Every structure is written in structure tokens, then in C-alpha cells.
What we know:
The protein is 31% helix and 24% strand. It has 401 residues and is α+β, with helices and mostly antiparallel strands. It folds into two domains: 2-196 and 341-398, 3-Layer(bba) Sandwich (FAD/NAD(P)-binding domain), CATH 3.50.50; 201-338, Beta Barrel (Elongation Factor Tu (Ef-tu), domain 3).
Amino acid sequence: STHNHDVIIIGAGAAGLMCxxxxxxxxxxxxxxxxxxxxxxxxxxxxxxxCNFTNMDVEPNNYLxxxxxxxxxxxxxxxxxxxxxxxxKYQVAYHERDFGQLFCDDSAKEIVRIxxxxxxxxxxxxxxxxxxxxxxxxxxxxxxxxxxTVTTPSHVYQCQSLVIATGxxxxxxxxxxxxxxxxxxxxxxxxxxxxxxxxxxxxxxxxKEALSxxxxxxLPVRIEANxxxxxxxxxxxxHRGLSGPSILQISNYWNPGEAMSIDLLPNIDLAAELxxxxxxxxxxxxxxxxxxxxxxxxxELLMSMENLVDKPIKQLQHKELxxxxxxxxxxQIKPNGTExxxxxxxxxxxxxxxxxxxxxxxxxxxxxxxxxxxxLDVTGWLGGYNFQxxxxxxxxxxxxx
Length: 401
Ligand code: FAD
């Protein structure tokens, strides 16, 4: 038998649940389907279990999208302050960390509780453990889509509005699938190439082995992307390569084959400092001098990797000084890849936004088909921006679907 609903949302994650509650509050009969056995799994593990649910400062330029204007409408209509309103309504305690990041004091479970409570209050139903086996459009005589059928092993559903909220490819262990991209392709939409984002990078064997002895060391660095975007935050050396917030941020901008240029001493002017040591302490060795600002083991390793000879500062020729400054202020390191979707927080690329209305998230030429959240070619920086996009895009679709 066929079950009718006004709206079917596929994906009970951040964007899908927000959309479901909004559409439900409008009086729409909403059903959310998800193959997982639990709603909002990514929310639960996010932000180390405390969910960095938004940011104090959200701007369109905190997002990567091949159409940079696309995010503006939704972000301006559902802001971080709107989400904080929900946090307040449910009296969830939260705190601010570096860079305006907002986290739950207690647990990410609070965020899932808010979304589930909102869905319940709005009378939106959620069905978990449900595989989708087919989606079809039903057209009228003019060829206009009037309904969609959604087939599962146990039921066939019909709906007027179909919202795809199945997210990206990161963390397949948590149930991520390419389902949303396949639906897009089925309906003739372009899907821009996907790759892992907000992800640690891996290094070539030799560098990896050398650096792995220092794994656990964290350094404040500054890294500039090709387009001039600059991230100043910690870099962490790991057994596999490089991680930490600065590396995760820059990974969104990095393309295979490129080198990263890392300022290892972002807070000082090394050329000036070395000149002053030459005056005040000319016999101090280069190694000991650099060790004033960086861990000694790291300095030793860097000097051997970059063939910097240790000698008293007074003996350094101008050319040698220049190369020391270059290594420290723009250390060139060429990752051989990333850790991939296994550990990535997000997926870059996805459903091309050119075919989507930025106001409603509906496909411009396909009546009743919507895409929200990470399945779209919208990727935020680290810092709560990806959830804010899920909230805002889910909210926007929820006003009209
Ligand atoms: P999701 O939340 O991924 O939801 C998609 C849903 O669709 C899932 O429930 C899934 O089960 C379901 N689904 C998928 N395929 C199918 C299918 N074939 N059939 C049925 N259902 C399907 N962002 C932040 O802003 N702050 C953070 O602190 C943060 N921390 C993160 C930590 C980790 C480890 C990870 C992996 C991500 C983190 N993110 C964070 C990113 C954030 O979780 C995502 O951007 C966000 O969840 C995307 O929301 P979404 O609703 O589009 O997709």
C-alpha cells in the first residue's frame, strides 16, 4: 500500500531534522527517513562529543562553494543568533572557545535532544533503519512533476516535496553514503568532484618517519591558502603526518601535488631577531637561538631535514641567514595526500549550487526536489560553520517545502 505525506526528508541529520521541524510547524505532514538506527549520529560525535554547533562570527567568506554568493541568503535569514535562540529555549548550557566557536558545556546529546523535541512538537515523524531502494518522479500530462515515490523494502511512500539531506561522504563508518549525489545525477543535476575536507594530511615515507619521532608536538603556526585566506592556529605532528586546527583548515584549500607553506614563527620577525642576537650574543649557536622559540627536538630535526648547518650566529653569511628565515617563516612541506574520508569532518564539492535556488534550496528546474546541508557544494571552515550551514539551509527549505 502507498503512504502519502506532504514532505519526505531523506536523512535525519542536522539539516534534515531542522527542515522537518520547520515544515511541520507550517502544518505540513512530514516524514523523515534514515537508514541509521539513530538520528543525528554525526552531531553526537562532533566537537569531541560537545558539538561546536555554531560560531559567534559567521560570514559568507567562511565557506567554500563554487558560487560564493549562494550561501548568503540562507545564512542571513537563519543566523547563529537564531540557533542560540533554540539553545536558550531548551536551556542548554554552552561556552565560547577560541575563534568564536560555541560548544555545549555538557554533551552533544543536548543538540540532538533539541532537534528531536522540535520535530515532536511540530509533529514531524522520523523512521529510522529504513533503506531507500528507489526514488521516482510522477509527472502530469504536461510533464510537470507533481509527486515523488520513495520505495523502501517495506513501504512505498508518496510525497509532494522531497528533501535530500543525506550529507557528504566523510566517516562512512557512521553511515555516510553517496546517496544524495546519486539522486542528483538521476535528475540530471551536476555533481562537482568530491574530496575529503577538514582532514589531516599525510607525508612521504621519509618525512613521515623523521617527524613521527616528534608526534604529539603542537606548534602555533600561520598558513596561507592560494587565495590569500590565512589561518593562524596550532599544527600537530602525528604518527601519520600533520594535523591540528591549522592543518584541517588549510586542507580545504589544498590540492594534491601542491606544497603547503607554513610560517613556523608567526609571532616574531625572525630576521630582526637574528640580527639582534648577532649584536647581543654573537657566539650563540643557530640551534640554540632557534630553540628559544621552538622545541629543541623540532629545531634539530628541521635543521637536518632542511640542511641548515649549525654554527655561531656571528658566522652566518647573509645568504645563510636568508635561507634560515625562509625555512622558518615559509617552511615548504608537500603532503602526499590526506587521511581521506575515514577521518575527514566534511566533504568538499557535491551537488552544484548553480541549479539550486539559494532562497529555498529547491532545484530551479525540478519542482518539489530540494537539497540541504552538506550534500550541496558548500563547505564551511572548522569552527561550527558546517552545522550553521546545515541549520540555515534546512531552515530555508523548511519554510516552503
Ligand atoms: P549529516 O548530519 O551527515 O546527516 C546525514 C544523514 O543522512 C545521516 O543521518 C545518515 O545516516 C543519513 N543517510 C546517509 N545516506 C543515507 C541513505 N542512503 N539512506 C538513508 N539515510 C542516509 N561541524 C561543525 O559545524 N562543528 C563540529 O563540531 C563538527 N564536528 C564534526 C566532527 C566529526 C568527526 C565529523 C565527521 C563532522 C563534524 N562536523 C562538524 C561536520 C558536520 O557534522 C556536518 O557538516 C553536518 O552533520 C552535515 O549535516 P547534514 O545534515 O547535511 O548531514
